[in-house]
Amino acid sequence: MKKTSVNIGIIGFGTVGAGTARILLKKRGELESRLGFPLTLKNIADLDTERDRGIKLPPGILINDAQRVLNDPEIDIVVELMGGIHPAKEFILQAIRNGKHVVTANKALLATEGHEIFRAARKSRVDIGFEASVAGSIPIIKVVRESLIGNRIQSIYGIINGTSNYILTKMTEEGLDFTTALREAQALGYAEADPTFDIEGIDSAHKLTILASLSFGIPFSFKKIYTEGITKITPLDIQFASEFGYKIKLLAVAKQEGDTVEVRVHPTMLPKDYLIASVNGVFNAVYIEGDAIGSHLYYGRGAGEMPTGSAVVGDIADIAKNIIATQNTEYRTQTGLIQDTKYRIKKMEDVQTCYYLRFSAFDKPGVLSRISGILGNHNISIKSMIQKGRKLEKAVPVVMMTHEARERDMMRALKEINGLPAVSGKTVYLRVEGGNNQDGRHKG
Prior knowledge:
This protein is of the alpha/beta class and 444 residues long. The chain contains 14 helices and 18 strands. Strands 7, 8, 9, 10, 11, 12, 13, 14, 15, 16, 17 and 18 form a 12-stranded mixed β-sheet that branches. Strands 3-2-1-4-5-6 form a 6-stranded parallel β-sheet, sandwiched between helices.
């Protein structure tokens, strides 16, 4: 019998699950008009069936047994929105074995277990929709795997964690310290009670894993991504960055060079006049360079009930259209993932970039020449310098910007500098994009 509608089952009725259900129910007629057939929300499975999510569900939709969704022969698409690795992974694999298509917003799961999940999907000839796993309402997955299919992606720069971006924005605009800005983010619901994944860069690294795999065909390589958070950023460094004409952002970077791809997440200094540097608050942005398109910047809300729910419904609609269109033909999956690649991941120690350095040095004759001498011995040249005040009895900040240098050389130089008697404490360093190794094509 020819299908005239597509049935959906959701597992997980938290923030994103509620947003997805709200859109499917409230806009049912609108969606049917646009698609030419109805999307029917048959069940939502969640252990908590009592909590009020602010949505009036038709009777019988909300259940507490995920197996009913996974094993229902009438459900065509299973939407996993519970998060975490287990049992989400097992539920998705079971849905795939049962011949059901899957939509998920679970970036941590895809970043760590994606290879197994996509291999299973190819074997069972079902689709995986994962637009909501990266950058919320920004359709960046669709852009990379469909709109830019004729491009060789050269580089990606992403502000893809709203919590960290909000914290850095408050520190920059209001001079707050990290702890105060974090508390404010938590009070407003922008940060979790345990914000570790956000502030330590792990969430951004999960998302970058997915983007890099799509863009360059490298395997899901979360464990190989250099990851550093924002917990050590101080108002003093933000102030010095501003004096040099930069802003500090938690940046996800993926660059292709020759047969290597560098993938890294860390606080980064960006020139103030770069478009991506002006992305503030909880907003996300992804800047992409391709050999055919040049430079593109994609901007929007990166999280939340409705923005992420919108991305989930977009995936549901795409898969549903494919289901209806291929009823009498062989279903062809479209993951957008390249099956083989010539690229290997560059080790962080081989990455070359410019650096911001802040030393606490005692104001004594020969200190600066000794520091610059050590940098020179490690092939690092100084671009500019600021020294604040003169205190013979206390260490004062000395700030330098370098030309492009290799990470390995910089780490060796800093180890030597930190051992100098005239240097107090460890040197603060930040990597810089948009220095003398960038052409600034993404300026405002």
